[in-house]
Structure formats: C-alpha cells, structure tokens
Amino acid sequence: MDRTILTLLAENEFVSGEKISESMGISRSAVWKKINSLREEGFDITSQGKKGYHLNMGDRLEQELWQNMLTTKRLGRAEAETLQTTDSTNSQLKRMALMGAAEGSICTAEEQTRGKGRLGRVWESPQGAGLWLSVLLRPEMKPERAPVITLAAAIAMAEAIRKVAGAEAKIKWPNDIVVDGRKICGILLEISAEMDMVEYVIVGTGVNFRKTAYSDELRDKAVSIEEVCSAVPKRREIMAEYLNLLEKLMDIVAISGFEGIRERYEAMSATLGKRVQVTGSVNVTGTAENVDSEGCLMVRDDEGTLHRILSGDVSVRGVMGYA
Ligand code: ADP
Predict the structure, then answer these.
(1) Are 275 and 318 in contact (CB under 8 A)?
(2) Mutate which of 116, 218, 224, 322 to test ligand 1's pocket (most atoms within 8 Å of Cβ)?
(3) Which atom of ligand 1 is nearest to the CA of 316?
C-alpha cells in the first residue's frame, strides 16, 4: 500500500482531506478510503472538522513515523519491517539479507518468541515491552575486524539512551548496556563472511522499556527505561538517535578502525579498570586494563600475566556483582 498518507500524518499535527488529496493527486473519497484502511490496520486517526485528520502515533515504530528524525544516508533508509511478532528480529533480517536487502534495512517486532543472546542464550522479549531491533550492515571489512561493530553499536546505543532518556548508560564489555549496574540493553552481532570479506552483519539490540514479569534469573539483573527515567521517551526516538549515531560511528570505523572511536568507548565503559571474572573458553580473574584495536579485552591476572579475551566465547562478570 502507498504509505505517503502516513508520512503526511506523521509530519503534521493536522492534515486536511483537501491537502492530502492535492498532494497525492487522488480524490477526496480515495483519501477517505485510505484513512479507513489505516484505521483498520490499527492506526489511531481522529478527524476534527476543518483542521482535518490527526494521527496519534503512540509508541508505534513504522518507518513513516521516524523518517524525519533521521540524519542518515543509509541506516533506516532502506527496507523496514515492523512486525507484531517474530521468532527473532535478527533471524527475520537475515532472511531479508539473503533476499538482497540493502545496507541500512531494519526489522522491529513487538514481541520475539525466540529472542537470542550470545552462545545460544535467550533474550526475553515480551510483547510491547521493549525496542527489539535489528539493523543490516554491509561493511567492507575483514571478518576478524567485525567484533569492533559490537563496540560501535554499544557506543551508539549508550549515547542514544543518555541523550534521549537521560539515563546514565554505560557499556559492559562486550555487548551490554547497563544502568546502575543492571542490564538495560543487550547487543547481538551475527556475521556472514566469505573467505576474507564480510558479506553482511546483523546488529541486534534489545532495549528494555517497560518493567515486566522477568524470569527469576533476571529480576535483579535487568532494568528498563521506565524504571530509570522520569519521562519515558518513545521507542522510535531512541531508535532514530541510535541509527544516526551508529552510521556516523561506522563511517569513522571504516577509515580509522577502533582507534577512531576508542575515546568515546572508554568514556562510557563500565568494565575498564574494574576487577572482572571471565568464564567460558578462557577462565581468568583479574583487572580489565584495556581494549585492543580488534575489540579484545585485555585482562591482567593476579600473577601479572596479560590475557587477550575474544568476545565470542566468554562471559564477563564484575567480581563485585553483575556489572
Ligand atoms: P551476558 O552478556 O550476560 O554474558 P548475553 O550477551 O548472551 O549474556 O545475553 C543473554 C543473557 O542476558 C541471558 O542469559 C540473560 O541472563 C540476560 N537477559 C535475557 N533477556 C534479558 C532482558 N530482557 N533484559 C536483560 N537481560 C536479559
């Protein structure tokens, strides 16, 4: 369906039927039909006499409702699927990528039935409770550099949460955003690569917005935007800001690698300088000293030996608690 009408409604407080019919070159009765079919899709459109139609955008995520908030050239400018429910937005976007979707395509869902964490873990994604978002990138990059994208996405999301929600977001290496030591957002990168070139990267982010009935495991570990800020922003506000920042950061990474974004990363790290416990394919307890140019965490153990930790196969916990 032609969604021009949705864009008009999103960008104006009120739009008269006459204005719509003029700008779309359709009859007034065609306008009326289109308005009604949008209402059938669940859009809350009221009409007020001469002033015209008004769209109550609520917390909806359709592309037409946030296009004008973008400063990007690519991200958010290609295909955008807005689903009620899906297994995982990453899996759905992967299917779109295989059909040739362009860089910058995105997928969101109100609910994920199989939201993914790393290492086969589950990301709890209840109906309407968060921003469950995946973004497709097609960077010209060697596969071993790709973990830096997780760090770029973490900076973009932490900065977006700070700017839009005013919450003191920090990055827990490698892939979580925490507020007051609790996880508000997780990031999951899925990479498809040829021999020595990345074909595409899917950057999944799950931001908790509403406090929900988390599982026992998460009760002390998770937090939502609603719990940490007084005026809860719309999900699309965080999303647009995140896309704007991510594109800029990826442009810097393309030229200067991680070094180009290191300062911004360090400014928001909840991990550097802390004592951490690494478990998984490597087991080390020590101090997180640094992140190297490929995004690996350098941890010095109590004997003074430096360990280079790859993000793929470990969990990192603060010795004093989750973060
Ligand atoms: P970690 O960063 O904890 O090592 P992952 O990056 O794989 O692990 O994220 C998955 C983990 O995040 C799950 O095992 C669970 O503990 C936690 N989790 C799942 N859903 C949520 C959520 N909505 N909010 C916060 N944490 C979650």
Answers:
(1) yes
(2) 218
(3) 4
What is the pLDDT averaged over residues 66-87? 98
Compute the distance from residue 25 Cα to the ligand 1 centre, in Å.
50
Q: Ligand 1: does its nearest atom lie under 6 Å from the Cβ of 222?
A: yes
- 26-64 pLDDT, tens digit per residue, is 999 999 999 999 999 999 999 998 899 999 999 999 999
| DSSP tag of 296 | P
Give per-residue pLDDT as tens, 113-142: 999 998 889 999 999 999 999 999 999 999
Cα dist from 56 to 40, 53, 65, 187, whole Å: 14, 10, 11, 30
Whole-number Cα distances in Å, 234 to 57, 119, 129: 10, 31, 12
Amino acid making up residue 73: K
Nearest CA, atom 23, ligand 1: 124
Q: From the CA of 278, how far away is ligand 1's center (Å)?
A: 16
